[in-house]
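Hi W.,

Here's what went into the run:
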Amino acid sequence: MSQAVQEVGVLPRVHYLNASYGWKTWLFTTDHKRIAWLYLAAITFFFFVGGAAATLMRLNLIEPQGSLIEPSTYNRMFTLHGLVMIFFFLAPSIPAVLGNFLIPLMIGAKDVAFPKLNLLSWYIFMAGGTVFLYSVIAGGGVDTGWTFYTPLSSTYANSNVMSAAMGVFISGFSSILTGLNFIVTIHTMRAPGLTWFRLPLFLWSMYATSIIFILAMPVIAITMVLLMLERFLHFGFFDPALGGDPILFQHLFWFFGHPEVYVLVLPAMGVISELIATFSRKRVFGYGFVAFSSVAIAALSFFVWGHHMFVSGESLYSGLVFSFFSFAVAIPKDRFRLRPPCSMRWASSVFLRWED
Amino acid sequence: MPLEPSSNFTQASSWANDWETLFYFEVGIFIFFSVLIFSLILYFAIKYRRRPGNEAAPPTKDHLPLEVTWTVVPAAICVVMFVWGASLFIRNGLPPAGATEIFVVGKQWMWKIQYPDGRRDINELHVPVGVPIKLTMASEDVIHDFAIPAFRIKKDVVPGHYTTLWFTATKTGTYHLYCDQYCGTSHSAMVGWVIVMEPAQYAQWLSGGGGGGGGGKSLAAAGADLYKQYACSTCHDTGRGPSFVGVYGSTVKLTSGQTVKADDAYIRESILNPSAKIVAGYTPIMPTFQGQLSEEQILQLTAHIKSLAKSDADGRKVAKP
Ligand SMILES: [Cu+2]
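Here's what came out:
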């Protein structure tokens, strides 16, 4: 490691990894690069937790009767897998790790706009994860499926829905604060001359993702609060026996849930765009269109949630409208899908090297 | 389960072929573009690889015609998919007027099926071949989903709502029925059979006896009993509440000035939540029957009210004021 560092001549002798040592300098750091590492450690841990749950599920399916684990355990495993992978691995993965690490570097800033808030985000994330894991370790797990559909989750499930919902609620704030931090950073801390249309495409995708974070995460947080109120205090929001409507839950959940899909995919598209740009040594083909597409996808993603409810008995008209919008958002998405080959075609110098 | 079940791939309803054609059309498009994109990536990556004399890339210019093409072509394909899908979706959502009605109540973890003339089934749906069938579905607890893969249809069964599903079976046989919405511990055991019979055989099966809570009575007759038992008659046959003659299917005027079509969902709501919509000209004195009547009993009461739709005692069609 140290040798490799020395070989890269441009690295200063003192840098963020060796500037200080000891666990305190890591846990109380406000350095965006170190915080990125903290996130990387955390999501790697959660990735293995979610992966272990999936492994148990798959092992149980080795034979048709599934005699390895009880049905109730199996249900807890796929719920655990879904919730951990969505909320504690995928959502923070690229934004919180690569985003934290690269955004300041790519815009020529010393750090993100609010470094302390950035550290706080990580602590909130860990707090949410801990409360969530409590539901699994001490509370016997949760068996509602990752979508928490009511009234199964609010009335009928016997498992530990409360702390799982609380974990999701808390960790949502981490994403909100990270999104806020990124947006302010990209707006206010770009180096002189780094105009919007000179930003690396990865930053456009981070910007779009951040918009989704601050608009969608509050909705899931509120939904979790309503769910907890109904489960704990029997307020009637979603259970028809209490005067509520289970479809309302689905509307709220997917209003968050669909944009969440783009939280997962936009950063990945940003990474791919960046890799192509770097290794073909030029801007991605049609840069402006791609930049706008990122933001267009983020905006349109808030108008398509009803396509998760086509068979829920939603009205014919709402089904048609949501189908229409869903196709509309496919068009900016196609811009990404068709881009890489063309970038390469016009790049005419791609990273592949071999002797000839 | 009487017969060896057919595979889920069998096309056994009027929907099967329509949905499947659309499905394979879309899959075809996806495969075409995926193969195209990935082969181009591979081809260009090799062709334009970096080598001596090709180190620095020339600057890129935007290429407007290309941008327009790959906006317009996908948009056109999307329009085709949307219109095609939407037309099927609309047909799927509008059951034909003359369809035979069967009632489904989902419950952790079983399906209860009620036929209009009183037969009941658990986890088995019997239908005649070639006849449009409309399922009206309710749930006693959580959200379930009534799915028949061989028919290529499914619909959620949602507590607090009625949902409907309609189809015409095209092939006699026995088919799988699944709950398709995760609904708790024994969700995977919430399965059953759909048995498609020749109409004559079906008629014979229907008359083969009732059993179950309806005591062999038709739904409407069972509803008439409940109507007496729960003393609906003390208001609805005395003028304190509206008469039900001619109500079902009519347009009801409300005190709010709005009107509402008296369908299953309206009747259900009037029984469980009477103050939600108040019939014009009446005081809202009706008590709620929430928690006292099961979904099945509500279906029976509805069938009773429906049986009064056509005519009063003298055979006149009576319109609501
Ligand atoms: Cu179910």
